[in-house]
Amino acid sequence: MGAKVKTIARRGSTLQERIFLIEIFKGMATTFGHFWRNLLDNSKLYVRHYPEVKPEIPVRWRGRHRLTSHEDGSVKCVACFMCQTNCPAQCIQIQAGERLDGKAEKMPVSFNIDLLECIYCGYCVEACPLDAIRMDTGIYSVTGKDRESFNMGIDDLLAKQGAFTEEDYKKGGA
Amino acid sequence: MSLLDILMIAIRVAFSAFVPLCFIAVCVWMERRGAGFIQDRSGPNRANIFGFRAAGLVQNLADAAKLIFKEDIISAHIKHKFFFVLAPIIVFFTAVVSFGVVPFADTLVINGKSYIMQGIPIDIGILWFLALAGFSVYGIILAGWSSTNKYGILGGLRSAAQVISYEIPMGLAIVSLLIVYGTVNLNEIARFQGELLFGFIPMWGAILQPLALVIFVVAAFAETNRTPFDLAEGESEIVAGFHVEYSAMKFAVFFMGEYVALFVSSAMIVTLFFGGYQIPFLATKTLITIAKPLAFVLMIGLPVGMYYFAGWIRRSNISHYPRENDPRAFEAKWYIRCFWGLIVIVELLLLAILLCQSGGDTINIFVALLQVCTFLVKVTMMLFVYIWVRWTLPRFRYDQLQKLGWQMLLPLALLNIFITSAVVVALS
Amino acid sequence: MFSEGLFYAFSVLAVLGALGLVLFRHPMRGAMSLVVTMISLAGLYSLLSAKLIFVLQLIVYAGAIMSLIIFIIMFLNIQDNDLPVEEKRFAYTAGGIVVLIPVVYFLIKIAGTIPGVEATIVGSGFGGIKEVGLVLFQDWLLPFEIVSLLLLVTLVGAVVLAGKRRVGK
Question: Which residues cross the membrane (chain C) (predicted)?
Answer without folding.
Answer: 6-24, 31-48, 54-78, 90-108, 140-163
